[in-house]
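Need tokens for this chain, all 457 residues.
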Amino acid sequence: MNELQVTFGGESHTFEPGQTVRIGRSTDNDIVVTDPTVSRQHARLTWGPSGWLFENLGLARTFRHGQNVTQVLLSQPTELSLASPRGPVVLIQPPAAAGAEATGPDDPRATLVGAPPEAPAGDHSGSPGQHGGAVPRVDHAAPVAGELAMAFEILVPVKSWLKDAGWRQGLRLLVIVYALLPLVFLAIFSTSGSLSTPGLAYSLYIAPLWAISFWLLLRPGKLTAVEIGIGIGIIAWVTAWLNLITVNVNDHLVSGLRDGNFLAALAVGYNEEITKALPVLLAALILLKYRSTKLGVKMWMLLGTVAGLTFGVLEERSYTEVAIAQVASSHAVSQADAGVLDFAFRVFVDGFQHAIWTGVSAFFIGMAVNYPRRRWQLVLFGVSIAAILHALNDWSLSTFNSYWPWIVIQAISLLLFIGYTMSATSIERQVRRTPLFRGDSILMDVVRPDDSGSWIR
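Here are the structure tokens for all 457 residues:
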């Protein structure tokens, strides 16, 4: 009677009035179109007083008779091309009893925009010989095949390139990987049914770039098997601890955090900063006890950023999922823009933000290992700096209807982290000369007082 029939890919589906028919690339749609050019939530069909109405929802467009449409009131069998005039075709057959007129290109009920002008058939105004004059043919002597082959090998020396040892240079390999990975993501994840997939994929994509940036900022020295092993252990620890402990603790604090309770924000700050700092501290103590080895504070800062980036990548899955859902459900451009920008922030900066906080904590952990007299005070001081900045960051988001306090806190965090990257050695030298912190240090010789009472190296 009023049933709607939708055919795609040789399969027909029937829907009753009152149902909302969703069309798109995501697997939770009623009609799933796997073409990567189609939006995840591309369009929907709804029943109303005038009959079945097609509405385009996604960023990708829909075409009817080669013209872009945003709405079509259906009264007769209609073929719609998704994403482009030659894209996947969906045949929609409304009930025969529907009394609405067909929605042609000029129908006011169908919004048609962006129809490209077409040249009239048979228009050859620019072709040679249009006015009847014969075009003389010039016979040029063609180069011999050998000369062409030689010229090609000179201009496009593929064989030489493939034998070049420069391919083994890290920077060239990195450029290749980072140029191809987004396309690989598109090919692999285009039919994914999870909104967290893009966030996880692109967070993993960005994290190594931040790690390289931290390395260039810190210049901590040569990486050996010891540092690489510690880094792998830190990644494993943060992953396990976050899922087993941190998330469960935060679940009991999230309601207070959303209500703007600063103590709840502070508890979340300490919970998350301890998650990241603890494996760094344990690694430093184990290395000292069993191998009598001390690493420089800059190396511990670098390993701290590894912990922070790991935490950020794991956390961003949920944040980016919320951002994408906001974009998908937005009916206003401003809301969609906010969702897209939030996704970009989470992917590009959230892991970095966690990394710089843990880098500050790790600076004091490195100091604590070198100065056992004040070890636990130094550890507590470093973790507290990161936890308080973290708490202020989260609290400002739930308290102020503005991003500017967040920006200020981020700027303060950056000032501290970059300041420590520049002055780590000089700070340790001053600490080493202060009796309050005196003890064995990796960077300074044992300090003793001279006859005048002054502290010397």
